Each structure stands twice: as structure tokens, then as C-alpha cells.
Amino acid sequence: MEEKHAAANESAHAESNGVSHGADHGWQKVTYAKKQKKKTVNAANSADSRANSNKLVPNGTLSGNDGVFRSLELQSEDRRRKIVEAKKLADAAYDDEDAPLRSKQRHHDDDEYDYDDENVDRSAENGKAEEAKKVKQKKPKKPKVTVAEAAAKIDAADLGAFLVEISGSFEEQQDILMMRFTDYFGRAFSAVTASQFPWVKLFRESTVAKITDTPLSHISDAVYKTSMDWINQRSPEALSTFLIWSLDSILADLGSQQNVAKGSKKAVQQVSSKSQVAMFVVLAMVLRRKPDALISVLPTLRESTKYQGLDKLPVIVWMIAQAAVGDLSVGLYAWARNLLPIVIGKSGNPQSRDLVLQLVEKILSTPKARPVLVNSAVRKGERLIPSSAFEILVRVTFPPSSTRVKATERFEAIYPTLKEVALGGSAGSKAMKQVALQIFSFAIKAAGESMQT
């Protein structure tokens, strides 16, 4: 027995010193002397036993005496194998999704493709595309429409139907009727820009004779007659109110343009200049058809500083010229009361005197003006040229020789006709006696001033 134990120990010691680094992964197999006897029998099968040592048997154990340890190792290897296979499947799916990108990258690596150049090209293409879009987004410029072109499109029949409609709707609201009437022409001239109707420049640089027909000369006869017939049915009060309203609108536009020219940042209520075409058209028609409406607003224009000043004078002159077209006597009546006093007033200067003279010269140059005015010397109990105006006329026509100016000769030319109108009337009438007394009083006063000088 001792020999057997010794032999077994020696065998185990030998095997422990000869550590195997094979398939047993360092685990050592213990054998006994009894099994040594069977080595010869099992020698032929030893290779097969080692070959099958890692194979599973039906009961889930490993063959051989190291089955427990090998089972743990195989389970671990199986888990690692599954992890590797799952990772391969994930990599394969990622490769399929990014194949185009990798293909481009391989192309970049193989052919030394310059990716930065591609970005530059794309940026250039994008820039051209954006530039093309901007060009396409630009709205085509609208063709310029002149006052004449816009006026030619106004249909008299359409205007007549419009006037019938609003007259039925606002029969008792005359002020609203006049505004709606103006709105119709405002729409008709809405395409006319301010550059096509620079009325401020036109009034400042043109003669009174030229601006008198501006812009009414472009209105067709049919439209003009339709409008005049409708205006004739409006009340004097509504027309007088309209005159002040439209004049305020025109002067507001004048003030706005002056502020823009001066570079002022002050906010101003600005009325669109293109709407002023309609305002001038309607205002001119009202003044020509109902000139008496001007007489009722003359005191307001004369007394309010709102309507005074050299910059506003061309507009006032234009209004009186329109009334004179409708009735010469109304034109001279307004001239003598509202314009002639300016000549000797604080605002009197060569420019203002020229405008005042241009208007009266135009009135007196009208065919048959002298007989018409002389016969209308007294209008509704009032003289066209009151004694106060006649006194001013004498002073500016016959000034001291040292104060004569260029305008003096022009006053001398119109004086005979104006004197005849100022002194016109039935001889021996009460009105003539009053005029005689006023002139006599003025003559005495003038003679005293002459003696003092």
C-alpha cells in the first residue's frame, strides 16, 4: 500500500511539474495507479477522448472528469460568441446605412478629392441661386401714368351712374356728397404719381394764364358737363364748406413738400400728391360753376393768417382765376378785396406784385371784359372795386417819382379800365353820390400828403 501511495504521489508530482498549456487551460488531471493499468487499453482512444472533451452530452454535462470547469468556460465562450455576432450584425446594419458616405470617403481617400473645393462650388451655386431669386422677386416698375392718360379713362356714363347712386344715398348730407364726388376722381387719378403732377413747382414757375387751366384742361367735355350739372344742384353752404376743406388739404400738401425740401424731421399730416390732382379738378369745377361760393369765404381767407403768406399766394391766385372763368365780376370783386391790398402791405414785394398784376391783367384781357365789368360795377348792392381799393389803386399807379418801380407802368396800363369800373353806375343815384363823397375825401387827403412832401 505504501508503494502504491508513493507511486501515486510521484505521478501527481510529475504531472504537477509538467503543467499543460493545452486545452485544459492549466487545469491538471489526477490519475491513479489502478487506471495506469488501463493505459494500454485506452491509448487508442485517448486522442478521441481529448477531441471530444469539449463536446456537450445529452444531459448537459461535459465528458471527462473536468466537466464542471469546462462547462463554465464554454458558457463564457458562448456569451462572448453571441456578443461578437451581435456586434457584427450592428456593424453590418451601420455599414448599409452609411455606404454612400463611406463610398464618397473612399473616393476622397483614393482619388485625393478636394472636399473643400466642393464646398466652395456649392456655395457659389447657392449664391447664384439666391441672386437669381432676388432678381425674380423684384417687382416690375409700373408704367408712368400722366394726368391726361388718367383723365382719358374717365367714362361720363359711369360717372353719371355713380352720382345718381350717391345722390340717393346721401340726399340730406351735402358735405358727404361732395367728398364722395371727390373720391371718385381720386380713384381715377390714383395711378398718377407726384412726379407727373408737380403742382408746387408748376405754380411757382408758371404764369397765371398757364396754371389757370391746370389740371382741368385734361377733363373731357362729357365728364365736365356731367360734373357741372351735378354741382349746380348742391347747396351754397355745402360748396363754401367744400372750398375751405379742399384748400386746407392742398395747403397741407404744400407744407409737407416744403418740410421735405428743407429736410425737416417734423411729422406733418401729408396728403398724397397724386390725390391732389382730383382735389384741384373738383375745386376748379366748383369755382367755375358756382363762383359765388368764393365770395362767402373771402373774409376767412383775408383775415386768417393760415391762408396768408407768399408761399400760399399762388394757390389763392389760382382759386380766384377759376372763379373769374365762371364770372369775371366775381374774379375782379375778389381781386380788389383780397389781392390788391397785398401790394402795399408787409408782404408786398416784386414777386407778390407780379402775381397780383398777372391775375388782373388776365381778367381784363378776356374778350368783352370792359363792358361786362362796367355793367356789373355794382353787384348785389356792392361795388366791384370799393373806394378803399380804388384809393390803393391810385397810390400804386401815381406814386412819387422817387418810388416808381417796374410794376408802376403795368398799373398805369390797367388804371383807365379799373377807374371806369370803380366809378361806374347810374348817374345821380344814391350809390354814385356815396362814391363821389369818398373819392373827394380821398383826393383832399392825397393833396395834403403831396404838399407835405
Question: What characteristics describe this protein?
Answer:
single chain; 453 residues; mainly alpha; 2 strands; 70% helix; disordered N terminus; TMEM214
Any overview of this molecule?
The protein has 453 residues and is mostly helical. It has 22 helices and 2 strands. It has a two-stranded antiparallel ribbon. Mean pLDDT is 78; it is low at 1-9, 11-23, 49-65, 106-113 and 265-271.
Q: How are the secondary structure elements laid out?
A:
Blueprint: H1 2-17, H2 33-36, H3 39-51, H4 67-97, H5 99-111, H6 115-137, H7 147-152, H8 156-169, H9 174-188, H10 199-205, H11 208-211, H12 221-231, H13 236-262, H14 273-289, H15 292-303, H16 313-326, H17 328-344, H18 350-365, H19 369-375, E1 378-379, E2 382-383, H20 387-397, H21 406-422, H22 430-452
For the largest sheet, list the strands in their spatial order. Answer: 1-2
Low-confidence stretches: 1-9, 11-23, 49-65, 106-113, 265-271
Q: What characterizes the major β-sheet?
A: 2 strands, antiparallel
Give the mean pLDDT: 78
Distance linking N and C termini: 179 Å
Structural class by helix and strand composition: mainly alpha
Report the count of strand segments: 2
Total helix count? 22
Estimate the strand proportion.
under 5%
- Estimate percent helicity: over 70%
- Secondary-structure element order, as H and E? HHHHHHHHHHHHHHHHHHHEEHHH
